[in-house]
Design a protein that fits this description.
With 421 residues, this protein is of the alpha/beta class. Helix content is 42%, strand content 16%.
Length: 421
């Protein structure tokens, strides 16, 4: 059986390519085709993770949208949105290599739509729209060829002014099954665009790391003592405004708790790497994990660093997920998307709701509204935060995780392997 994969993993964002590799490992098909707008990055990742696979790569070449770049001054940026509701016909007409993609789709048995958070109004903004259309295009062609389309653990919405655009897309699809990684807003968002078919609930595609990842016996750090992990990709302007508070945080963690601080970037450039360089130039008592040589954060190393930490403060959802999966106390501060916190709350609270389903908990013990609040809370009450969260890392959590894992594997069996010719 040959399985095709499509999703936002053409970016060097840890969570997106991590979910792709984990899905490939869990699905266990050795013949795979990856459709992407960034073949050089996928090739690099394949050399690391997919040496034993019969791999075909297919570039998706879409006519670039006008005003593609974000308006920014390297410290802050402004987003412009495109609210035109393209029909599937109009998207298909924008594919430069339609015949090539058609031929590759014809060879697969099923197309897997990777999990993530890209079916929303933000991804329809001008700076991301070409990438979004590059993801949608192979799905439309697979639908034309009557291939089964299987969505993994995605977050849907907020759709906002892009409601008609996404309604045109989802209601075009015939033989597909859709899953969501939350039971908060995603299903209701899909209902808003007119999609009224069942939506299954799955864990995030990266929550259960496949044993195919070679996990280090110890974290790849030179530190000898205990440490905490800091991850953020806030704008440079915001970090510069918070340097004094960040310095107080780093000093307090060491003097009061004897914890070193390790900064772990989850993406290159302004996705975390440049933020790390700013912190390195500002403080001599912080360890910056370097991802410049590979050009991406290794999945096993990221998991090992977080798994062995005493505490995590993070901006990104998948840093939060790795902490929860490894039973590490964490504060996750939610950034605004499309002007509010619904997007991050949806997936982050959705994760908590999934793993702590039969336990009493408060999301306010895990989530913060800003970096400042997360720092202030941890400086004042770190032992209490750790103790309260650790009470939830118990046998009931393990039981719920077992249910979620079995549900994921059954979903793969029922919807992907059942498509084998």
């Amino acid at each position: 059986m040959r399985v095709g994969f499509v999703g936002p993993f053409g970016d060097s964002n840890f969570g997106d390519y991590g979910m792709l590799i984990n899905n490939i490992y869990d699905i266990k098909a050795k013949d795979i085709t990856i459709f992407s707008y960034n073949i050089p990055l996928i090739s690099k990742l394949a050399q690391k993770y997919l040496n034993n696979y019969n791999l075909s790569l297919c570039e998706v070449n879409i006519v670039a949208e006008p005003n593609l770049m974000v308006t920014h001054n390297c410290k802050e940026y402004a987003i412009e949105y495109n609210n035109y509701p393209d029909t599937p016909f109009e998207i298909l007409k924008k594919i430069r290599n339609y015949q090539e993609i058609l031929e590759q789709i014809s060879r697969i048995d099923v197309l897997v739509v990777n999990g993530g958070g890209y079916f929303n109004h933000l991804w329809n903004a001008k700076h991301r729209r070409t990438r979004l259309l590059s993801i949608i295009a192979p799905i439309l062609i697979a639908n034309q060829l009557k291939k089964k389309i299987v969505f993994m653990g995605n977050t849907y919405g907020p759709f906002e002014e892009s409601t008609n655009f996404f309604g045109n897309f989802f209601n075009y699809l015939d033989d597909c099954v859709i899953a969501s990684r939350d039971e908060v807003y995603s299903t209701s968002e899909l209902r808003k665009v007119g999609y009224d078919k069942p939506v299954q609930h799955l864990p995030d595609d990266l929550y259960f790391l496949n044993e195919g990842f070679t996990l280090p016996s110890k974290p790849p750090l030179t530190l000898s003592g205990k440490y905490i992990v800091l991850e953020l990709y806030s704008s440079i302007s915001e970090i510069e405004a918070k340097l004094e508070q960040l310095g107080q945080f780093i000093t307090t963690m060491k003097r009061t708790y004897d914890y070193d601080v390790v900064f772990l970037p989850f993406d290159v450039n302004y996705g975390g790497e440049i933020q790390g360089k700013l912190l390195a130039s500002s403080f001599d008592n912080i360890t910056i994990y370097d991802i410049s040589k590979p050009g991406y954060l290794d999945v096993s190393e990221a998991n090992s660093i977080i798994k062995n930490a005493e505490f995590v403060i993070c901006n990104r959802y998948h840093a939060f997920l790795l902490a929860i999966a490894n039973n590490i106390p964490v504060l996750h501060f939610l950034r605004d998307v499309c002007g509010d916190k619904r997007y991050y709350f949806n997936k982050s609270y959705g994760l908590l709701k999934s793993v702590f389903r039969n336990q009493m908990f408060s999301e306010t013990d895990f989530l913060e509204s800003s970096l400042s609040e997360a720092i202030e809370h941890s400086i004042k009450e770190l032992p209490a935060i750790q103790e309260k969260q650790k009470c939830l890392f118990n046998s009931e959590k393990v039981h719920q995780e077992t249910i979620l894992y079995e549900r994921r594997m059954q979903y793969i069996e029922d919807n992907i392997w059942s498509s084998e010719n």
